[in-house]
């Protein structure tokens, strides 16, 4: 899920939401659609979240197989009534009690089928079964209930109004909210194989949900919409949105004879806006299918339904969105990316929510690479520009230690730094292996349509690449911050064919020493450059390079493949004079290169004298870098005439406010 960033005092948030719903269709600057995601921002909600959700005793002994929800929506007063039928397989131990998660604020009327009585307290609905069921047996229960679901801030189940004032209902159950409006085993670790959802709404309203719409039946003043989700689905992804929607459909053609429904529900008067905003959906699908493999719910649909929350939520096959405008492309791509990462494979623990949100955020960067971004054409530069936009430099860890606080689960770190983990992994593995691993991870029979942990993703990456990635994931997921590098380099000696350079890297951060491949790029006098990759794994590490050309400057990780700070080191004691570092070849015939080290804030000159002390030639630098100046002498004097063979002396000269400053001379030999 994705939420927009607005600088608004908490006490104004409710007013802001109503303002959003009543606003006309306005252009939205793309940067305003930049991320922080799904924070409820309501104190009452946080109070509910102070106890981390854990399975009730005995819940792990049941495997949820199927749910059938039958819910009628009523307005004025606002409440729901209906029933949930669930089928469960008993696993290891005989069982005579089934415990489901269900909010105490809802009223259970009756229980039936295998359930003969119930107790409802402490957010748990305990069902006494009609007998003791053995491992492998199927238990089917039905719960009839009613009530007004608790509306905590912007979720879980909301009675609201559309911009035209008509009533609207929508759900947003992530992370622990399904139990606030329907009884279930509310954990991402246990997905039912399928779900039927029959939504009753006042005639004239439409109801959008997961899967395929199988039937629509009107009875008296109610219309019933029968949705069927045939793929496994996490309970927090089961959703509904009900209101006076305008409805339009398109098709995504993913083969010459194959197509999939694109199903859209928007507010009254928004059809034209929606068609404009969603016009690139097929391109989004093409792009993400290219990177991740086929859309995982092809035999059903992909849809978007407008709701009254300022962001988006990746409900399976039917994303809920707050904004309808082409500038919200990153929101649409983010939520679409979740269909692979979050829906088809779902994080088994909220501590590893990066497996959902980091991957979806990374989808945005990949689409930037596919389509172009920030003035860059499609390609790697557009991708880098987007990754620069979501650079994360704060202290939190991607792995969420404390999931009792909603702000920890959906902190921006799991989005931005989570995406950067994938960005860095791409460089570590290389494009071929990286994208092969992504496609395999989301289609592997071991995990597809199930729940996953980081170790599962790591396993796929290691199987594909043959690399040991334990340290990579450990340092980037469980440690705060990032590496801070200081680097320095020095030309040791030069020959006609090789230049030897000593390159030193020091990690200065206080946390762990990072083990990463690092690119070192040398820029040469002739305008060319060369990038070499080194393995860096010590706090202080030196490397020796033998280059075919004389380097002008060096940059560490110029393409930002590593989340880091990198600075070229300045000497502790900056030299107060200009010194000649290298001169070659010596002796020389046609041309000699002379390199000076100059840390001062103005350019120097070279003066060349003969053995009698007569000034023969003055030279200005032909090029320079941060602290190096490059000169060339062609063996001619200031008048352009060739000088005689012999010994000459070269010294650097600097004009300062206090006069002329000279450096130490060196001897060169000119041979005609």
TrEMBL record:
The family this protein is said to belong to: Belongs to the peptidase M1 family.
Organism: Caldithrix abyssi
Protein name, as recorded: Aminopeptidase N
Domain spans labelled Peptidase M1 membrane alanine aminopeptidase: 330-476
Gene3D superfamilies: 2.60.40.4070, Neutral Protease Domain 2, tricorn interacting facor f3 domain
Cellular component GO terms held in the UniProt record: cytoplasm; extracellular space; membrane
Classification via Pfam families: Peptidase_M1, Peptidase_M1_N
Spans through the membrane: none
């Amino acid at each position: 899920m994705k939420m927009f960033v607005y600088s608004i005092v908490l006490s104004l948030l409710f007013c802001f939401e109503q303002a959003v719903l009543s606003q006309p269709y306005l252009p939205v600057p793309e940067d305003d659609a930049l991320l922080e995601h799904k924070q409820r921002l309501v104190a009452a909600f946080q109070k509910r979240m102070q106890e981390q959700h854990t399975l009730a005793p005995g819940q792990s002994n049941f495997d949820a197989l199927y749910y059938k929800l039958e819910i009628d929506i009523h307005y004025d007063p606002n409440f729901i009534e209906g029933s949930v039928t669930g089928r469960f397989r008993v696993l290891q131990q005989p069982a005579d009690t089934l415990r489901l998660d269900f909010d105490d604020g809802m009223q259970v009327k009756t229980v039936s089928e295998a359930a003969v009585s119930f107790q409802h307290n402490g957010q748990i609905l305990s069902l006494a079964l009609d007998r003791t069921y053995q491992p492998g047996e199927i238990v089917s229960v039905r719960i009839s209930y009613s009530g007004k679901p608790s509306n905590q801030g912007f979720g879980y189940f909301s009675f609201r109004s559309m911009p035209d004032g008509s009533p609207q209902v929508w759900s947003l159950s992530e992370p622990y909210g399904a139990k606030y409006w329907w009884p279930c085993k509310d954990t991402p670790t246990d997905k039912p194989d399928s779900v039927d959802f029959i939504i009753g709404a006042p005639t004239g309203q439409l109801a959008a949900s997961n899967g395929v719409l199988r039937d629509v039946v009107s009875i008296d003043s109610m219309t019933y919409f029968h949705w069927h989700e045939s793929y496994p689905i996490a309970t927090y992804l089961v959703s509904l949105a009900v209101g006076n929607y305008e409805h339009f459909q398109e098709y995504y053609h993913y083969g010459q004879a194959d197509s999939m429904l694109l199903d859209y529900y928007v507010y009254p008067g928004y059809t034209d806006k929606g068609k404009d905003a969603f016009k690139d959906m097929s391109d989004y699908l093409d792009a993400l299918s290219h990177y991740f493999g086929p859309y995982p719910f092809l035999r059903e649909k992909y849809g978007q339904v407008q709701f009254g929350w300022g962001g988006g939520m990746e409900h399976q096959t039917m994303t809920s969105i707050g904004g309808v405008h082409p500038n919200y492309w990153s929101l649409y791509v983010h939520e679409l990316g979740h269909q692979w990462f979050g829906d088809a494979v779902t994080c088994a623990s909220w501590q590893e929510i990066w497996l959902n949100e980091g991957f979806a955020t990374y989808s945005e960067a990949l689409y930037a690479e596919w389509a172009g971004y920030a003035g860059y054409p499609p390609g790697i530069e557009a991708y880098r520009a987007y990754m620069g936009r979501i650079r994360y430099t704060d202290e939190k860890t991607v792995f969420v230690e404390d999931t009792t606080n909603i702000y920890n689960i959906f902190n921006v770190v799991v989005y931005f730094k989570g995406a950067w983990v994938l960005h860095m992994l791409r460089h570590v593995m290389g494009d071929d292996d990286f994208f092969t691993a992504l496609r395999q991870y989301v289609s592997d029979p071991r995990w597809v349509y199930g729940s996953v942990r980081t170790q599962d993703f790591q396993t796929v990456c290691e199987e594909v690449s043959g690399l040991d990635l334990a340290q990579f994931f450990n340092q980037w997921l469980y440690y705060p911050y990032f590496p801070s590098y200081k680097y320095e380099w020095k030309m040791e000696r030069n020959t006609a064919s090789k230049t030897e350079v000593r390159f030193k890297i020091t990690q200065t951060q206080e946390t762990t020493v990072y083990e990463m491949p690092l690119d070192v790029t040398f820029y040469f006098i002739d305008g060319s450059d060369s990038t070499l990759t080194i393995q860096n794994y010590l706090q202080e590490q030196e490397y020796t390079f033998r280059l075919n050309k004389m380097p002008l400057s060096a940059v560490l990780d110029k393409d930002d493949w590593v989340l880091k700070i990198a600075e070229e080191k300045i000497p502790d004691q900056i030299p107060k004079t200009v010194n000649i570092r290298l001169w070659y070849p010596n002796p020389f015939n046609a041309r000699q290169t002379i390199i000076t080290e100059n840390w001062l804030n103005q350019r120097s000159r070279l003066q060349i004298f003969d053995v009698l002390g007569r000034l023969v030639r003055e030279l200005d630098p032909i090029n320079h870098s941060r602290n190096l100046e490059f000169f060339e002498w062609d063996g001619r004097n200031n008048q352009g005439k060739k000088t005689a063979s012999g010994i000459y002396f070269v010294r650097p000269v600097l004009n300062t406010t206090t006069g002329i400053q000279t450096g130490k001379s060196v001897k060169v030999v000119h041979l005609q």
